[in-house]
Amino acid sequence: VQLVESGGGLVQPGGSLRLSCAASGFTFSRYGMSWYRQTPGKERELVAVITSTGGVTNYADSVKGRFTISRDNAKNTVYLQMNSLKPEDAAVYYCGALVFSRYYWGQGTQVTVSS
Description:
Elements: E1 2-6, E2 9-11, E3 17-24, E4 33-38, E5 45-50, E6 57-59, E7 67-72, E8 77-82, E9 91-99, E10 102-105, E11 109-113
Parallel strand pairs: 2-11
Antiparallel strand pairs: 1-3, 3-8, 4-5, 4-9, 5-6, 7-8, 9-10, 9-11
């Protein structure tokens, strides 16, 4: 199982970013996917989840209405569209998946929100 995030970077408050997570090594279309984030000294925080078909999504209260999780099962990729970014959204963002009874993480992608 391999998860590779991309799309992070520096953005001004109020701006947008789209994160991608390319998955391989398992049948992507059969598994739910998640995005988490973590800042130094804090525990990893669940941001958004999506079911295997993409039919159901759920979000942390802190990002509801601003972030959208989606997936393309033909491309084995899950996305996180982040709009109206705030300084408190700055973190390393990870995608994750529970596969074969083990939780897998990508290496993370840094999101910095600053003027």
